Amino acid sequence: MTREYAWVPDPARALDTNVGRFMAAHGIAAIDELRARSVDDMEWFWDAVVRFLELEWFEPYDKVLDTADGIPWATWFTGGRLNLAHNCLDRHAASTPDRTALVWEGEDGRVRTWTWAELRRQTDALAFVLDSRGVGIGDAVGVFLPMVPETIATVLAVAKIGAVFLPLFSGYGATAVAARLDDAGAKALVTADGYLRRGRAVPMKKVADEAVAAVPSVETVVVVPRLGHGGVEAGGRDVLWPEPDGREFATRPVDSEHPLFIAYTSGTTGRPKGSVHVHGGFLVKIAAELAFMFDLRQSDTLFWFTDMGWIMGPWETVGGLAAGATLALYEGAPDHPSPDRLWAFLERHAVTVLGIGPTLVRALMPHGDDCVRAHDLSALRLLGSTGEPWNEAPWWWYFDVVGGRRCPVINISGGTEVGACFLGPHPVEPIKPMSLGGPALGMAVDVFDDAGRPLRGRVGELVCTQPWPGMTRGLYKDPERYLETYWSRWPGVWVQGDWASVDDDGQWFLHGRSDDTIKVAGKRVGPAEVESALVGHASVAEAAAVGVPDEVKGEGIWGFVVLVPGVEPTEDLRAELVALVARELGSSFRPAAVRFATAIPKTRNAKVLRRAIRAVVTGADAGDLSSLEEPSALDAVREAV
Fold it and tell me: What does pTM read for this prediction?
């Protein structure tokens, strides 16, 4: 379907963006010309990015890119020595110590603000503690915290001492925490006594204690007293978050390829995959994305609704702080204690760049436009999204009601292993509804058919044919799994596992995970397309679609829907929904079943756990469910089945 552009930039404003100034400095007239040059001459581009963003090395690199060991094992900025914490903290604390670095709001309404000077004092205090407890270069430190100011200081402190941080989802149970700490051989863990979620205290320290009991390598547990009591046990292992004493910890120079963090993903089977990211490549790639796609500046306040255990946590932290912007952090649920909590938060803290996922937008829409418009969101200038494919009505609601049609929707896509974005628009180009614009700068992405040939106008596999600075340096302790997962289908080609398409105007769209794709009688359809059709009905608030084995067609479509308040499930409504999908997508894709559920299983970051739904229907093992926010949502699916 050909769509009209929703966002068309003002030419004068486009020139005044970071990417506009970068193009002007290099005599480049259009964003597509820059995209092409950034891929055709990667070494020029990434070196130019470092200089434009004024990123600092303790010792300059000899070579931008080295592929001597093959594309999957490419290294970047070789020979250079730097530290991400210097670029994301020290230089700003030295030049503008009194500017605001962080503003945090708890679910109970408590607000804390740290200047750059205070962020450095807190970071250095923790660095001294970790150093004194024997945590050194290359040691792993778990970060099991809610989104509080100390979380940002922890990430920076670990980077400062040359250790490696392990971001852990704050909602994990003890088994999931222990598995990741044990896999990395963690020497320390930073956690909190607890936090608030929907008005309830979540006992993090209790979970941490149970996890650490199973991981003998952990010798130190630092506890943030979020709820006031700390929960520190006697015996020497536990220490409270330290009070700064004014000493400055000397940031340690490390090699550009020195590990920065290991980001674990939840697997369907086997142990979680640990994606290894490094100081140089992750810093440069993420700083470029926030600067160019989100036009982030020192004057901005960035808020992304995320958790440090999702890749968007490190992404916003590194990109936001590298730009010298203010990070806004929120602890709790976006609709508690009232459905306008998120919009009130944005107004109170004058957020200028907002990022949330499509599923969260779909969940907030039923509360109505007035819930948003009751708040002054005039500070907003860019909207971000990631995590799931859009459907049209929520996208327009986000663009129109939240952004007032004056903020571009910068819809990005990458992944934990990507460490960055494959796709994303820039504010200097026209953007269609639900579009991802085009390839991110420096990313040689394409869409392939089943034979490995470039494909346009139809849905195919999203791939990348060249290395990039932010890519994982393999899966921790499992190089063969890394090669098999991403590089084995076509030589020298990264297969992302997403379905994508490029329309006649060169706009890119995503259609869901290829392993989620439903194949009915040989014809493929993405679950997002089915879900988009279902939520197009006025009675449907949320939807999820999965493929279920069918003896005749191979797979049949099962849809699960949550109805808007006040609507009763009836057989007539079920028939309407089946007919609606058939009408929208074609009779071949008529659902085999539509079930009414009271909830859809999602992660806290609002991703639909389709594999868990499919497992309930088929009776299969659901795999790792440690990221599931509400276990009762699976019970709702069971009841619906």
Answer: 0.89
